Amino acid sequence: MAVSVLLVAPEPAATTLAQSLRHDLQASVQVASNARASLTALRREQFDLVLLEENLAAAEPDATPAIYTGAGAVPLLEINFGICGRDRVIRQVKSALTRRAADEAKARKAASVTLQKELNASLTGLLLESQLALRQAGPELLPTLQHLIDLASGMREQLRI
Fold it and tell me: 77: Cβ–Cβ under 8 A, 6 or more apart, which residues?
């Protein structure tokens, strides 16, 4: 899956860098030449990274916080294209995308572990209550309760995998 980058920079600077990002990262790059265009793009599409030209941010200081807010959880790099060469920008973009992928993987793993713990706790309670009911139940309920215990035990084993 190609990464999607919003490049917020004046047109002359953006054209060359956008071509480099497309070529070097096989990225889908959308160019916004000002803050208003960037906010519109952020409302309409999901991006993996927002790359903001530092001089544009300085030229529109009132709009810059809105760009950061509009980006939300998407990494935003504010870079001075006049100082940073193409190779440095590409390295920083790659690094930011790698960090984002690692953060997302950590979050997915943490969510999975949390869900597994919650389900195990519920299944443990279900097993204990079912076993207690099995001891107190009459003969007509024994097969049903034993089946319930077997199902809960099976689910618990599947969660351990």
Answer: 49, 50, 51, 52, 92, 93, 96
